[in-house]
Write a structure and sequence with these properties.
The chain is mainly α and about 500 residues long. Helices cover about 75% and strands about 0% of the residues. Belongs to the major facilitator superfamily. EmrB family.
């Protein structure tokens, strides 16, 4: 039996224009997760903020988007998937303009909260639309297109944000969304198909508990580094609220009726395994993105623009991988592609453990290309297989959970590598400094002036020690991510091989 929200037509009119419009909106939203980061220092003066308080520009957006993402399925059923998508584009574009016009930190935070609320539904709805308007045999190519926007957006965000800030003004980081949003809205309004609504009651208690868990977790992860983690009462309160919210929501999901996320969605083994995988991908993708720009700036003295150019080949590798895997997923077992992608990612991370302050940019570029190829090989088949055995009417809820888990993985990954970097830098610095002693004969060979106690020579030695300690700390982070990647590979055994493309309609009918 056909479900009200399922689209069954194989020949959707204007499929190409729909895809273009959807992807413009998706890239616009994904870019905003990283494009504003590099503009924060220049915002402080105009907004009357300090270095400590300006980070609320990022925190407010992340927390608001995280809270609203899980409710996308209910909103699309209640108000219409097409209508929600159009409203999200309009709201996101308008609030982007207001962010660019902000006159104080308070106004910026308020506008960023609304920007996050409106933008939360764009990514899961775009994934749902692309699955709906394409027949099953084209899902791999559709997910390749969608994945390219999701993964390349955060890579080019800091570069674009740095260029706009240096060339124009930090406000253009937000103003640039206006033309993109208008084009995306006009294309979506003209060509997106209307889908029948499905009225269902709103589970306010379940939503409140999940929002409490997600919001408190995101606050804890985003604020932890600033307040020295568990030495601050704030972090303990947020941890307690997060655990309470998730625990109560889980019990409510298992025992309640008419919950706003149907517990049946978690009976699909492919989808649940896909959630675990996308969590790992989130850790690797944005954690490495968070590490490389400061490494290139602090250790290699690269400008923002040069940093973007050095990291650009990573995005090129991802694009090439997406193009290839969109076709390969139709003829090669998706599980093999996932394992191969994780293998390439592990190889790239192993290469990154050999970085040193004396090298040129070639190892960074080569490892970036390999990592881009690997993550692309993982993302597309994973996005395809995770939804392959799921009934179509679960797609919007599933896509919102998919995006939520990826974002939580990214936040946790960034927090872990940041904490490790800070801690290991102190430990490594102490270990290396212990060898700088007038009683060490090697010091006299390297720098007789330093052994004699010359202040200038000792200062140079301190800079060398600090640089080496920092580099070793980055290498420790790369090793951790390599271990996480290798540990995730056996999970591919839990994925079920989806039905062949030719039998797609029959499989969907059976699922119903």
């Amino acid at each position: 039996m056909t479900h009200p929200t399922e689209t069954t037509q194989r020949d959707v009119p204007h499929r190409g224009l729909i895809t273009l419009s959807i992807m413009l909106a998706t890239i616009m939203q994904v870019l905003d997760t990283t494009i504003a980061n590099v503009a924060l220092p220049t915002m402080t003066g105009d907004l009357g903020a300090s270095i400590d308080t300006i980070t609320w520009v990022l925190t407010s957006y992340i927390v608001a988007a995280a809270i609203m993402t899980p409710v996308t399925g209910w909103l699309s059923d209640r108000f219409g998937r097409r209508e929600l998508f159009l409203a999200s584009i309009v709201g996101f574009t308008v609030t982007s303009m207001l962010c660019g016009l902000s006159w104080s930190l308070e106004s910026m935070v308020v506008f960023r909260i609304f920007q996050g609320l409106f933008g939360a539904a764009i990514v899961p709805l775009s994934q749902t639309f692309l699955l709906d308007i394409n027949p099953k045999e084209r899902h791999g190519q559709a997910m390749a297109m969608w994945g390219a926007g999701i993964m390349v957006g955060p890579i080019i965000g800091p570069t674009l944000g740095g260029w706009l800030t240096e060339s124009l003004n930090w406000r253009w980081v937000f103003f640039i969304n206006l033309p993109v949003g208008i084009i995306a809205f006009l294309g979506s309004a003209a060509y997106l198909p209307r889908i029948a609504r499905r009225l269902r009651g709103f589970d306010f208690f379940g939503f409140a508990m999940l929002s409490l868990g997600v919001g408190a977790l995101q606050m804890m992860l985003d604020r932890g580094a600033e307040v020295d983690w568990f030495s601050a009462v704030e972090i303990w309160i947020e941890l307690g609220l997060s655990l309470t919210g998730f625990w109560v929501f889980t019990i409510h999901l298992l025992t309640g009726e008419d919950t706003f996320i149907d517990a049946a969605i978690f009976r699909d083994r492919n989808f649940v395994t896909g959630l675990v995988f996308i969590f790992v991908v989130g850790i690797i993708l944005l954690a490495s993105l968070a590490l490389l720009p400061p490494m290139l700036s602090n250790l290699f003295n690269h400008s923002t623009i040069l940093t973007g150019l050095v990291m650009a080949p990573r995005g090129v590798g991802t694009m090439i991988s997406m193009i290839l895997v969109g076709r390969l997923v139709r003829v090669v077992d998706a599980r093999l592609l996932v394992v191969a992608g994780l293998g390439l990612t592990a190889v790239s991370l192993h290469m990154m453990t050999g970085f040193s302050p004396q090298m040129d940019d070639r190892p960074i570029i080569v490892s970036g290309i390999i990592q881009g190829l690997g993550l692309g090989l993982v993302f597309v088949p994973l996005s395809t297989v995770a939804f392959a055995t799921l009934p179509p009417h679960f797609r919007t809820d599933a896509a919102s959970l998919f995006s939520l888990v990826r974002n939580i993985g990214s936040s946790i990954g960034i927090s872990i590598v940041t904490v490790m970097l800070t801690h290991n830098m102190q430990v490594n610095h102490n270990d290396l400094s212990a060898a700088i002693s007038p009683f060490n004969p090697v010091l006299g060979t390297v720098s007789p002036a330093a052994q004699a106690g010359d202040p200038v020579a000792l200062s140079i030695m301190e800079q060398l020690v600090a640089a080496q300690a920092l580099m070793i700390s980055y290498i420790d982070d790369f090793k951790l991510m390599m271990v996480i990647t290798l540990a995730a590979m056996p999970l591919a055994l839990l994925l079920r091989k989806p039905a062949p493309a030719m039998a797609g309609a029959h499989a969907a009918a059976q699922a119903e």
